[in-house]
Every structure is written in C-alpha cells, then in structure tokens.
Design goal:
The protein has about 240 residues and is mainly β. It is about 5% helix and about 50% strand. The protein has 1 helix and 21 strands. The chain has one helix at about 1-15, and strands at about 20, 25-30, 35-40, 45-50, 55-60, 70, 75-80, 85-95, 95-100, 110-115, 120-125, 130-135, 145, 150-155, 165, 170-175, 180-190, 190-195, 205-210, 220-225, 230-235. Strands 1-4-10-9-6-7 form a 6-stranded mixed β-sheet, with no helix packed on it. The protein has a 5-stranded mixed β-sheet with strand order 13-19-18-15-16, with no helix packed on it. A hairpin with an 8-residue loop joins strand 9 (about 95-100) and strand 10 (about 110-115). The longest helix is centred in the N-terminal third of the chain and has 15 residues, at about 1-15. Residues about 1-20 have low confidence and may be disordered.
C-alpha cells in the first residue's frame, strides 16, 4: 500500500510541473472566444520558463473581440482585435521576463514567464490614485543608474492611472484599467528616462543613466498600442 501511494504521488507531481522548454522549439498560443488565454510548450503544458533561443510561435485567434500580445526584451507581437485567424511568429528570446496577455481584458487574461537567467529584481515602479514612484530595493528614490540590464517590478494599484517608463531604447507601460503587477527586463543606456501617468501627467519623475548627452535637436514622438495605451513624448522621453 505504501509503494502504491508513493508511485501515485510521483505520478501526480509529474503531471502538474510547469513546462520548461528547450531553445529553438515551437510554442502554441491561443485566445478567445471563451474565458481563457494559453501559451504552451511542445508538450502542451503551460510555459513558465524557456531557454534563450529562437522560437516559432503559432497563435490561434478565434475572436474578433480578443487579441494575443507577447512582449518582452526584443519582442513586441500582437494579433490585433478585428481579424481572426492563425498567426506564425519567429521570435528571438533572451534573458529576461516576458508577458503575454489579451489587451482588451489584460487583468483577467495574462501570464508571465522567464527566459534564461534574468537579472534579479532591484528596481520597483508603483502608481496609485494619487502618486507615482520609481525606487530601488531599499525604498530610496531612483535619480541615477549605471548603464545595464535591470529587472523592474511594477505595481499598478489603480484604475485611474497607469505607469509608463520611456527613454533611450526603452518603452513600457501598464494600462489604465484594473490593478495589475508586471516584471519588466530593460536594458538602460546613457540618457534621461521619464516615468509618468498618461491620464494624469502631473504624476511624473525622471532619472539619468550613465552620462547623458545634451540633445542638439528636439523631436516629438507619438506612441500608440498595441493595446489601449497612447502617449506623446519629447526626445528625452518626458511627457509634453
């Protein structure tokens, strides 16, 4: 009897372990029309970790009200809302955190997975109804960082604001919907970075990385999508 129980426990454990796929494989994703979003490895199990490498992602989008978005270091792909059908993406995944979600219902339908060995989370972004902050692990405000790759834990606790981080080579944001938590892996280079709420731009801040150069020309940038976020910024990433 004891041997049977031990065998059964091991069998159940094997069934419930998350998928850890090797590099250069095929991944399968699906969204709509039911209340589900999936992202699975070759064995059909939900992906929680992948090795760095090149992957083929086969996406089935069966609803004209839903989409499938995949974002992370070096990757920004989405199916869009109106068309339905199958999509095939070839993506290069590298060390870091990635997120997949349905942009129309992101708080309900989303998932995260890691690739390789992401850097430890040492920075934190936070936004609520009345304030926005970007801090180090010890709670001190970020004013300057060395160039490098960072993992950032972002806590969006409000339906009234979002958290956008923008600067040289980086553009990430939460949405103005229900509260959500994110982990971003970003490579920050010499320059000035800004963080702010799109709905209430008086909630904002800036920090520098490395040795920022003085901009000789001034440009304005408009950014929209692939979800329901839209913003405009200057060359330094500040809101205008």
């Amino acid at each position: 009897m004891r041997r049977r129980r031990s065998f059964f426990a091991i069998f159940v454990l094997c069934l419930t372990l998350p998928a850890v796929a090797g590099a250069d494989g095929t991944l399968t994703a699906a969204t709509g029309p039911g209340n589900a979003i999936t992202f699975a490895g070759p064995d059909g199990r939900a992906v929680s970790h992948l090795d760095p490498g090149t992957y083929t992602v086969n996406v089935g989008d069966t609803s004209n009200r839903r989409d499938f978005t995949l974002r992370g270091p070096g990757v920004s792909e989405h199916t869009g809302f109106e068309p339905t059908g199958d999509h095939t993406w070839t993506v290069g995944l590298k060390d870091g955190w990635y997120r997949y979600y349905d942009a129309a219902f992101e708080p309900d339908f989303h998932g995260e997975f890691s690739v390789g060995s992401p850097p430890a989370v040492t920075l934190k972004g936070h936004v609520d109804d009345a304030a926005i902050a970007f801090t180090k692990a010890d709670g001190s405000r970020v004013t300057h960082l060395d160039p490098g790759t960072y993992s950032i834990a972002v806590e969006d606790t409000t339906e009234r604001n979002n958290f956008r981080l923008i600067g040289p080579g980086a553009e990430e944001h939460t949405q103005v919907v229900r509260p959500s938590a994110y982990t971003w892996t970003l490579t920050l280079t010499d320059g000035t970075y800004s963080f702010y709420s799109e709905r209430h731009p008086e909630l904002h801040g800036t920090f520098t990385v490395g040795s920022p150069a003085q901009a000789r020309q001034r440009f304005l940038h408009g950014i929209v999508g692939p979800d329901f976020a839209i913003t405009s910024s200057t060359t330094t990433g500040s809101r205008w």
